Amino acid sequence: MSTVSKRNWRENPLIWPTAGLALVVAFNLFFGAEFFSISIQDGHLYGNLVDILSQGARVMLLSLGMTLVIATGGVDLSVGAVMAIAGALVAALVERAGLGFFVAFPAAMAVSMLLGVFNGSLVVFARIQPIIATLILMVAGRGVAQLITTSDVIIFEDPVLEFMGQGYLLGIPFSLWLVAAIFVGMVLLIRKTAIGLLIEAVGDNENASRFSGINASQLKLIVYGVCGLLAGLAGVLEAASLSAADPIKSGELRELDAIFAVVIGGTALTGGRFLLLGSILGAILLQALTVTLYNVGVPAAVAPVPKAIVIVAVCLLQAPRFRTQISKIVGLRRGK
Amino acid sequence: MTTETILRVTGLRKQFGPVKALDGVSLEVRAGEIHSLLGENGAGKSTTIKCITGAYKADAGEVLLDGVAISPQSPREAEQLGIGTVYQEVNLLPNLSVVENIALGRMKTGFLGRIDWKHSRVRAKAALDKLGVSIDLDEKLSALPVALQQMVALARALDVDSKVLILDEPTASLDEKEVESLFQVMNRLRESGIGIVFITHFLEQVFRMSDRMTILRNGKYVATREAKGLSREALLQDMLGKAFEEMQGRPGNLNTFSEGLSGKENRLVVNGLGAPGKIKRLDLKLKPGEVVGLAGLLGSGRTECARLVFGIDGATGGSIELDGKAIRQGHPRTSIDEGIMLASEDRKTEGIFPNLTVRENMVVALQTRRGFFKPISKEEGDRIARKYIDAFKIKTSGPEAKISELSGGNQQKVLLARWLAAEPKALILDEPTRGIDIGARAEIEKLIESLSREGLSILMISSEMDEEVRCCHRVLILRDREVIGELSGDDVSESEIVKLIAAHA
Ligand SMILES: Nc1ncnc2c1ncn2[C@@H]1O[C@H](COP(=O)(O)OP(=O)(O)OP(=O)(O)O)[C@@H](O)[C@H]1O
Ligand SMILES: [Mg+2]
Hints:
The structure holds two protein chains of two kinds.
Chain A: H1 15-31, E1 38-41, E2 44-47, H2 48-71, H3 79-96, H4 101-124, H5 130-149, E3 154-155, H6 159-166, E4 168-169, E5 172-173, H7 174-192, H8 195-204, H9 206-211, H10 216-242, E6 244-245, H11 254-264, H12 276-296, H13 304-318, H14 320-333
Chain B: E1 5-16, E2 19-30, E3 34-38, H1 45-53, E4 60-65, E5 68-69, H2 75-81, E6 83-86, H3 98-103, H4 117-130, H5 146-158, E7 164-168, H6 176-191, E8 195-199, H7 203-209, E9 212-217, E10 220-226, H8 232-240, H9 253-259, E11 268-275, E12 279-286, E13 291-295, H10 302-310, E14 317-322, E15 325-326, H11 332-338, E16 340-343, H12 347-350, H13 358-370, H14 378-391, H15 408-421, E17 426-430, H16 438-453, E18 457-461, H17 465-471, E19 474-479, E20 482-488, H18 494-503
Parallel strand pairs in B: 3-8, 3-9, 6-7, 7-8, 13-18, 13-19, 16-17, 17-18
Antiparallel strand pairs in B: 1-2, 1-4, 4-5, 9-10, 11-12, 11-14, 14-15, 19-20
Bound molecules: adenosine-5'-triphosphate and magnesium ion (MG).
């Protein structure tokens, strides 16, 4: 994992998502301070900020997996569909098959991971471009989810799932604890093993990585597997938060949110260097934007437009070429 | 020969962060001369070129072409102004064909922008013919060996009508025959009144080809000299800032060393290794500490041998043993684990991780050898990196610098360090001194000797025959993808190697 060098703050890739967040916060300060109000009811935290984090939890999970995939030079378009499958599977097993959480949940996780590994195999063994390889599951996955639920929305009741999706621990939504634990776990895994360096090497120059003895195929299978697993977890969380699994709506267009979060977070789509913390910040920024736009009363159908503008702006600012151009123009204005 | 100045560069400055890459560089090239630009690794030669062509934006300085101040914003613009350039790192498009690479960006278009491919093919063919090479125009570039890719880059530069032609280490990966045809072309262009800037670390080529030369040291202009009457010693003094004694001929102890080897067990044994289209048959025995060279022309199969032994390409027959243990073939990872390693000739596509740091680039092979779960800590990596930065005098701001910010020769040193850090038992060096300056070259030759003394077996490939003569205990001669002869002891000499290569023609 990248160590951020101190030489130039502008080269710190975390600076832009942070700046974006600061901007959103400033905007809200101006237009509606109720954005920041946090209240405690029944010992639970409530308020916009908490909503942003807890609703962002799923995209955060997706973006963590997506970061690793993108770092190897790939992309996974199927995460939304895997969410739907995992949600549907848990619901069907609990509600229709009458199995308990402790059978249904591991089964859903195992299936999600296998789906990820399936993606990985298409990339590694069949040598299909990642974008096409994962498009297959993106399209077919919705069908599979509908098969599992026999086309309906399954409404279920399960205390453990309900706690996962809607419960609180020490006043904070449980889903946030889960994301935090996974993030810390992943960072530790990357620090305490060499996997981060090896992933970055594969993404940076796959050919050279072979000469250095790195097994790129194995790494990619792992990475796609992890991405599938995290997508499945996000799907279960989504179903749990609604106590219902919707094979069509669940995870819809989430793959794009995840990719945006990763890119905003400073990981290049070309692979190589990656930043897990950046992706988390990116996911929070996306969610904060969504909530802000909703608060200001922008109709849901129009909301993607300002969102897109912010995403483009952050990405442009990250490109050194664009920054030089801008500073040139600003310099000219100053009459240099 | 005219004496009219065609390219005049004055007071060029360029700073990268804290590093002053150029600190007042001047260069004056006349029409119809070959002007060498000389200096150690990291002296600022490539940066000077990039500032002239607009690949980098200089902080200060002036470039006059034909007396007119120019400041191209991109190499393409420079090309249109009449400055053709071949960069040190071939920057062609590996997935496109040869003709596309030569014609790209200057294709003649017809009705509705339809590309006139016939025209492009004719021109590409003409440019390649000038260089005396015949390559299939439709071959994908990445399928060609580095030397031929270099020829394609040259053809691309020759394809435009330039006033000035800049060649940054064009001969680094070429064999004698290709170098000769390049030199003929350069002479012809000189006669037609083009000013040529020529960068190389081979002083013989400098003296043979250039009319004048400009020397840089640490980003500063040192002097401009006439080639005629200049001594090698004086030039080296200018380049290094101190007197320098060159190694000459074959050290006598190479022969006595071989005699001491006879009693020892073989370290590496290769038996009947072969793969269709690559190598017919390779048999090889290396004792501990023995240095064996592979000699032959371009296309004789030297690099293919290296790739088969290392396992990056799969062999269809034969066996490899290290210290008596059979090695599973076709798996670079296994080879590295067992201690057989290959430092590839192709720095850019098979060597560096451009966006990773010097430290990461150095430890990556050692890391794969140790495995996932025993990470090399940052501190340990830092220690390793500093050790080699000192030992090889690598010019960099430190272990955390991005490797792509280093000069070509310094990147090469980092790659050598990568393999030494991984503690090989048998090391294959494919063009280890490519792009390395004369001082560092001597250091690396000394290093090879001391590694050999410590018991490391080395298989070495170098287009510089004199280098193999100075370093190798034995030399195997390849021709048409098989070994056709072997020289050892006193017989190892350039003339004998040439004789053997020619004898089977
Ligand atoms: N993009 C960059 N960022 C930071 N430093 C750079 C960059 N490019 C070059 N440098 C530094 O500028 C100095 C000059 O480099 P340059 O590539 O011009 O050397 P050179 O004379 O061509 O050497 P070589 O013979 O090894 O090719 C080196 O110290 C190098 O580290
Ligand atoms: Mg250079």
